[in-house]
Design goal:
Aminopeptidase, binds coenzyme A, alpha+beta, seven-stranded mixed sheet, 7 strands, globular, about 190 residues, single chain
């Protein structure tokens, strides 16, 4: 996993990924070239966060903390076995399969091509791995790519396209767990606090 970061890790020292906060982050200036994604960040992301529908995380610089360089949105969904790539269907129930979904991912046009997309995607995977190990299982991480070029971006990271719907891709749970092998320690009951 770390190898994906190595080439540009120096640049990453100034970057931080945090949960979207309407008070702290300036959403108005964000422009990724896809108006539907820009509008989601500007108009809907905070509502979805507050209602528990989806969490949006933003990439900012420590030195420029209000400016949103990129964002991604994660939610949980229910999948059927027909949504899973054929080679990963074995032994699964037919329906009601828990899954995670990368509902959105976008980098401001002025900073695309600097590994920010990669950094956010790896962070999304890390969060899903944490949820799988510490909260509840999912069969994988789904994404709907905007077009075949963007599907190519996801394939680089191990996402597998569905045979009959190649713009829908799934990153299998095994891939995510292998990439993030850390198993959290047991919780002493005396440490349970709100
Ligand atoms: C797609 C997007 C998120 C990629 O982010 P980025 O910061 O520009 O990409 P990165 O610099 O992290 O690139 C990582 C790797 O993916 C490749 N890549 C980037 N964009 C790609 C694309 N559109 N198609 C195929 N490969 C792509 C890069 O060449 C790089 O490969 P390398 O490691 O071999 O050099 C970004 O360009 C974007 O926000 N586009 C507009 C909105 C959008 O389409 N979002 C996706 C919604 S499904």
């Amino acid at each position: 996993m770390r190898d994906w970061w190595k080439p540009k890790i120096e640049m990453a020292k100034d970057l931080i990924i945090s949960l979207l906060d309407a008070e702290k982050h300036d959403r108005k200036a964000f422009d990724c070239g896809e108006s539907a994604l820009d509008d989601y960040l500007k108009k809907t992301a905070c509502q979805h966060l507050n209602k528990g529908i989806a969490n949006t995380y933003v990439l900012t610089r420590r030195t420029e903390p209000r400016r949103v360089l990129g964002f991604f949105t994660l939610s949980f969904v229910e999948a059927d076995v027909s949504d899973i790539p054929v080679e990963h269907r074995k032994g699964l129930p037919k329906s009601h399969l828990p899954a995670a979904r990368l509902a959105r991912l976008a980098i401001d046009s002025r900073c695309q091509g600097n590994s920010y997309g990669r950094i956010l995607l790896v962070d999304a995977m890390r969060r899903v791995a944490g949820a799988m190990r510490q909260v509840a299982g999912v069969v994988g991480l789904f994404v709907d790519a905007k077009n075949s070029k963007v599907a190519g971006f996801y394939r680089k990271f191990g996402f597998i396209p569905l045979h009959d719907a190649p713009l829908t891709l799934m990153l299998p749970r095994q891939t995510i767990l292998l990439a993030f092998p850390h198993v959290p320690p047991d919780t002493p009951v005396e440490n349970l606090e709100g």
